[in-house]
Amino acid sequence: MDEITLAERPAALLVVIALVAIAVLLFLIIKVRLHAFFSLIVVSVLTGLAAGISMGDVINVVIAGFSNTVGSVALLVGFGAVLGRLVEMTGGAQVLADKMLNRFGEKRAPLALAVASLFYAFPIFLDAGFIVMLPIIYTVARRLGGSFMLYVLPSIGAFLMMHALTPPHPGPTAAATVMGADVGMVVIVALLVGLPTWYLAGYRLSLIIAKRYPNMPVPNLLGEPKDYPEDERPGFWTVILVLLLPLVLIFFNTVFSTLEADGAVTKDNVFFQLSRLIGTTSIALLISVLLAMVLLYIRPRRRRNERIGGLLEDLVDDALAPVCSIILITGAGGAFGRILTETGIGKTLADGLDAFGLPVILAGFLIAIAFRVAQGSATVAATTAGSIMAPAVAELNLTGVALAAIVVAIAAGSITFSHVNDSGFWLVGRFCGFDTVTTLKTWTVVGTAIGFMSFVLATAVYLVAS
Fold first, then answer.
1. 331 pLDDT more than 80
2. How many folded domains does the chain comprise?
3. Is 30 within a domain?
4. Residue 328 resides in a domain
5. Helix axes 236-261, 126-144, angle to 10 degrees
6. pLDDT exceeds 70 at position 345
7. Residue 160 falls within a domain, yes or no?
């Protein structure tokens, strides 16, 4: 995008504009009941104009933010929704739910779902992984009854912790890179800090919050499931293969990217080139969806001499139709975040915090929070805060565990205070059937609790190591 024309605004005025924009946005969505997509676009345009972006440029900024977000999210959401629906509508979710409940018992079902989410969230981004886990959560919730919140919120906590703190997720990876930290050490410190954080702030707190929503129904976003007889359900290991394949492909990409960065392989290496193709999240999900079509849908029906015809096409259409609104809302959230970024509101807040001369680990945490609140993206918040703090950290000559602890503290700040300018806020909230207020009281509260507890534990690690 060409350089935008931006009129100078005092720093204090920029902050006031951001706060008023968020308040107006919440008013339109909650009180006026204007659809979130329209509310976000309207407020984005007005905020850009008020903050000094010229009338000739403001629409370009909105479009850039919208298209960048949709470009990264649409494929993940689309492929993830189809994979989820295939697992749900072929009996695969029933198979996994039965196995899980037989192994852990009904009383431990929320814990079992959360633990499964931890493993699934390690190599795969939150939005894609969560969508694929949803049919299993739906099935367990329908089977056992009670509030849907009891089953979905602990899993959300697991995905939030992994996405926020652990490489290869982009935020902590980028922060570690710009600050010169060893990524392997960051993984170790992140798990040391993250696992107790997940259990207390992600799992236990989720159970407490879920009690406030005793009648939350299970959404029908992936369609009404059919109760398949046991002889028509896919095999357990077939379902596991379909669900684990994207993790294996992504891990394959991570391994060879690490080897290339370390100089162990060259960019011309055939396996490195292959990993860049099939190991990206979107292509890994595409391959898994195509395999699921064959193993879960086409092959069993051919074996039973059932008609396939246009039924598979109808299934895919039914999976994609309800997520179109989610993709549009997510893109609009990205547009609002881009407006706030272009106006310099995040940098204004960060500069103010940096001027106070705070301890380096606290300053990094607060700067990450400032960027998170200002523009929404946890990845951008962690990357930007890491870049700002890199010179100060270099002056201290920190290495090893102490440096990794600072990276984790910055990543912890990047997951806090998610609100209406965060695309994940809309993505998860809409897939769970939450309204805006409920999303603030659940997703936002759990994410913020995870961020603050992670920071406290990372600080303890930093003090011991330094």
1. no
2. 1
3. yes
4. no
5. 160
6. no
7. no
